Amino acid sequence: MSPRWNPNPDIRTGRHVTYNLHAHLVFVTKYRKDVFDDAMLERCEEIMREVCGSFETELREFNGGRDHIHLLVHYPPKVALSKLINSLKGVSSRYLRAEYTGRINRIGLGSVFWSRSYFAGSCGGAPISIVRQYIEGQKRPI
After folding, report:
1. 122: which strand partners?
2. What residues does each domain of the chain span?
3. For residues 29-43, b (16+ Cβ closer than 10 Å) or e, as one string?
4. CATH class (in words) of the domain with range 14-136
5. Digit-coded pLDDT (tens) for 18-56
6. Model confidence pLDDT, tens digit, residues 49-106
7. pLDDT greater at residue 109 or residue 61
8. Is the pLDDT of residue 5 over 60?
């Protein structure tokens, strides 16, 4: 399927595959500690975009509150979602802990930034615009 004939930009093609895979991910800080401010959320989004790019995955939407973040990712079928999530959490933890050491130490997170658990939801049935609206609405006043 040629991209110029594709009326839906969410449908992507590879060499032997045509796909439209989206996942809604939610990560929570360890002990649900209120760690994020606006600047830290912006930096977290930059890190997440870089990691997604290295997986040939597109971060479509990002938002968060003081103790959690939401991501909407568009990913190819060759990407194991668990590996993407492991990398997103691991890389962001290393960078954020290095760049915001004083803030993180004051809050008392110890040596772990993210909770081990996470939410991953398939967005195959819901229109992406609805999922985007939901994520946009998750911003809590900081």
Report:
1. 23
2. 14-136
3. bbeebebbeeebbeb
4. alpha beta
5. 888 999 999 999 999 999 999 999 999 999 999 999 999
6. 999 999 999 999 999 999 999 999 999 999 999 999 999 999 999 999 999 999 898 8
7. 61
8. no
Instruction: Report the amino acid identity of residue 106.
Output: R
Beta-carbon contacts of residue 25 (< 8 Å; ≥ 6 apart)? 70, 71, 72, 73, 85, 88, 118, 119, 120, 121
Q: In this structure, are residues 59 and 46 in contact, taking their beta carbons and an 8 Å threshold? A: no
DSSP codes, the chain: --GGG-S-TT-EE-SS-EE--EEEEEEEEGGG-----HHHHHHHHHHHHHHHHHTT-EEEEEEE-SSEEEEEEE--TTS-HHHHHHHHHHHHHHHHHHHSHHHHHHHT-TT--EEEEEEEEE-SSS-HHHHHHHHHTTPPP-
